[in-house]
Amino acid sequence: MAAAVDFWFDFASTYSYPAAHRVRALAAQAKVAVNFRPFLLGPIFKAQGWNTSPFNLYPAKGRNMWRDLERLCADLAVPFRRPEPFPQNSLLAARVALVGLASATQTRSWGDDFCVEVFRTEFGRGGQIGDETGIVAILARLNVAPEPVLAAARSDAVKAQLRAQTEEALRLGLFGAPSFTTTDGELFWGNDRLDQALRWAVKAL
Amino acid sequence: MAAAVDFWFDFASTYSYPAAHRVRALAAQAKVAVNFRPFLLGPIFKAQGWNTSPFNLYPAKGRNMWRDLERLCADLAVPFRRPEPFPQNSLLAARVALVGLASATQTRSWGDDFCVEVFRTEFGRGGQIGDETGIVAILARLNVAPEPVLAAARSDAVKAQLRAQTEEALRLGLFGAPSFTTTDGELFWGNDRLDQALRWAVKAL
Question: Cβ separation of A175 and B67 shorter than 8 Å?
Fold first, then answer.
């Protein structure tokens, strides 16, 4: 059995951007397999009594988050631009990601690339990822024909899969994103815990 | 002018424990002066609509914080034991700390040592720091005569000083602890940002 980490994220989550940017290279270096697990924070925030991002509900926290993210991206030498509105609607992107991630067993996998490219569009260029136009443009950049993907993303099967993924996140105790879980049941919350999660996954073998 | 960082903390704050444990050695290594700035999170949480720690208000977040802190302390090889009740009342400790920190200009300074020892007692041994008995025991371990210190801690001047310190924290945009501020107005939130804050302080010179 190889070491593995589940990487949980919502496409609207700000700190999931640096995590998505870093996770594949760091995991490869640590010889840990990464499973991309998009889910929806909305139902999880609702369970905590929030109807939007806590960064909007608590302005001082929000102001610091944007500045912190700017500093983090500068340290990583990745572009940063704040999207408007925030948060973006992440529902369609998450469903499309599930279609792409399921394609991993086929000849050509574009799931992980799609996820990274969504974050780059949204927080690197301040682009729109909440509507079909934005998603089609991202698929085009990856040379993926959009029509069959969008049709699959709107199927009842994929809708149910995203609901199940979000319910699993709740069951695992997730309350924010990004989060990392290991096969022995540890939960690590936040971009700042990526390295520790990878070390744990290796140790847990 | 030397590089300097203000280290803001509340004695009830869990992540201020590893920060207090690490800050002096890391700052000395980076050649950055550290000003210990105890304040009260209570009024700041109240401004966000919370009547206790968010770790108590949001159970999933709280469960992860205790586990995360346990893992962090194991990595740092410092003892960890969860205090009951949580949060501890930090008012008296903060006032006593101000008395000790003011003693820095005198022949013998015990302010920083007191702060570190309060955190060690509370989160390293799960001890009580909310009442006079706990504080007297800590002062005794530092060979500081408790009576004049407690009298000073209860003076109107020290009470006003702690209120002013908390108001300054709010003005600087603090919303949690630990936080680090630099002379050029940057705010870094969390134990995870200590190293970055020190680097920034050096760069800002």
Answer: no
